[in-house]
Amino acid sequence: MATSQGTWAYRDRFGDAFARTYFRRFGPGVASSVGIGTYLGDPTATVDEGYRAAITEALESGVNLVDTAVNYRCGRSERVVGEALDAADVDRESVVVATKGGFLPFDGERPADPAAYVREEFLQPGLLAPEDLARGSHAITPGFLDQMLDRSLSALGVETVDCYYVHNPETQLQTRSREAVYDQLESAFETLERRRAAGDVGIYGVATWDAFRVPRDHDAYLSLPEVVDRAAAAAESVGADDPGLGAIQLPFNVRMADAYTVDAHRHPTEERDVSALEYAQAAGLDVVASATLAQGELAAGIPPGVDAELRGETAAQRAINFARSAPGVTAALVGTSSPAHVPENVAAGTFEPLGARAFDAVFE
User: Does the predicted TM-score (pTM) go above 0.90?
Assistant: First the structure.
């Protein structure tokens, strides 16, 4: 697993090659504020090869945060991450490996009949009941998450996942009440607390698309204060000294800045509503930004008024540095399935991000 000594040694390996704030505290040590994502791409051997080469190069170039999920690319993304960890000239203790569980994964390829696959693999063996499912493809029950974590550990070839996210729990709001979803999360956190005590998980978190960045009256809204309270209750119920909830993941980019602009969460110590980013910063949660390049759209150009304020030689670098500049953001993920894009993305970290006042000015 990633350790303080291992991640700090990784940082020291690069000396002054990066800007001062490129490496930031995460979990027990530090992580690069540019991470590599593995969501996009077809489940093919060709895409596997590209990811394997890109992740290996990134790990050897100054990126020590890799993000994936059990369902990404029909399970192939986790396997490729594991292969890159073996191939790269880095120690396991220097790399923060994050994955997620929630969506039902396929095994290597999309089946001809997905509904039949779900019945045969998950319902008939009794791992899930039909009522556990949302949209026929999502579940966060304790037994299911337990098995998905085991599956991830095997695919990644690691003994410990440094950060394990409950994946898009707002999906469950399509079939049950908000209070019922909070209850589900508390049960999920109890499971992850037990796995943390067993050494299978470092910290855990919640990865979302809508939940934390939409207004309270939105159908997909979940309250960060309530999620934090449920983690505290879960830790207490299993006898843990402190909750293992340590991170959240949400989309954040020039065109999706709601996590900074929408005040939908009660501040943990003050009587006011704040954004997801401000809440997380006050509550001591790391924030990992996804969709940093808006699935590639921002690499082609950024709105001129914002672009002029950002540092970087290319639009992609400036978009990455926008996400890295947001107060409260620990790291920005960039999906990179081609090694040709790695040097440009990593070089974004050679520029200092905007300070808090300069970042605020972008929105004025």
Answer: yes
